[in-house]
Amino acid sequence: MLNRIGFALALTVSLLPACTDSADELATDDATVGDDAKADASGGTYTYYFVQPDLRACVSPVCGGVFYKLANGSSTTCLDGTKAAQCYAASVDWAKLGLDDAAIGKVNAAPDLLVRATIRSKSWSTGKYAELRPTEAWLPQGPNAAAGPLAKIGDSGIRCITAPCPSLRERKLNSSVQANISELGWDDSGASDRLIETATEKALSSDGIIVAGYRYSNQSTKARTVTQFWFRATNEKQCFVGGCSGQVCSEKQGVITTCEWRPEYACYHQATCEMQSDGNCGWTQTTELQACLADPPN
């Protein structure tokens, strides 16, 4: 509980102006192609790639696969051992992600998709081509372009009774470089307060979050801005509308409530019940829903 309170305090402070600091140990170009021996290490930082679809108009498998690029790397090692800005894979095997069709659909549609994957050879009638085999998929959350080194953020295990406290650990993707930081600065992320709160919770979870950003100083401690951030893709819960007046959104079908009526319940009749960014079912807070709840019909 102390760590969550400390992080919440740091979050508030991080929205204020801070001093930039050029001494960023994560800024060095030391990213290496992920050693496959490290690819299955739980919570590891190796074998992360940006992936985008190949939209060239020619016959598969020569076209129609994906391009992959090593995160934090200036070049990527392709299947044949050559280095390039990005490499081509004729196919992707999504099976190890363990995601359902709806989640895979979101993964395939995501811009700036990050995956943790190995690269293998697959035989086609026309020869051998690379196949991407992801074990993790990470979806971008903010509206802005990523800038700065990419790092996985998690709990450092450090507990303090005063702030700022280096309660977070940042580990550079595809590198062994890491540092303890006291906060994340969200001004450059373009994210809503609600999404920032969700990211705050996820940063302390077992998966953590991935961020791109730059080093700055928070008093005597290190900190990092956030230009873009990613959550790990998971299967979505199925959400249901229930309650006597249709006012309940939950993962349980057929929820029964008492039948008193309140004017604001009418607002939910045109609202969307779905899984929210925190992983729970809830009413999507559109401007229309918020306006209706503020002044419900009589």
Essential attributes:
alpha+beta, 298 residues, 4-stranded mixed beta sheet
Question: Would you mind describing this structure in some detail?
Answer:
This protein is of the alpha+beta class. It folds into 2 domains: 1-233, no CATH class; 240-294, no CATH class. Helices cover 14% and strands 32% of the residues. It contains 4 helices and 21 strands. It has helices at residues 2-14, 101-109, 193-203, 287-294; strands at 19-20, 48-53, 66-70, 76-77, 83-84, 87-89, 91-92, 113-124, 127-140, 150-155, 168-172, 178-181, 184-185, 209-212, 215-218, 221-225, 228-232, 240-242, 248-250, 273-275, 281-283. The strands form 5 sheets. Strands 2, 3, 6, 7, 8, 9, 10, 11, 12, 14 and 17 form an 11-stranded mixed sheet that branches. A 4-stranded mixed sheet has the order 1-15-16-13, covered by helices on one side. A hairpin with a 5-residue loop joins strand 20 and strand 21. The relative contact order is 0.15. Mean pLDDT is 87; it is low at 1-21.
Radius of gyration from CA coordinates: 22 Å
Order of helices and strands: HEEEEEEEHEEEEEEHEEEEEEEEH
Which descriptor suits the 3D outline? globular
Alpha-carbon distance between the two ends = 42 Å
Total of helices: 4
Number of domains: 2
Low-confidence stretches: 1-21
How big a fraction of the residues is strand?
25-35%
Mean pLDDT across the residues is 87
Number of strands: 21
Structural class given helices, strands, pairing?
Answer: alpha+beta
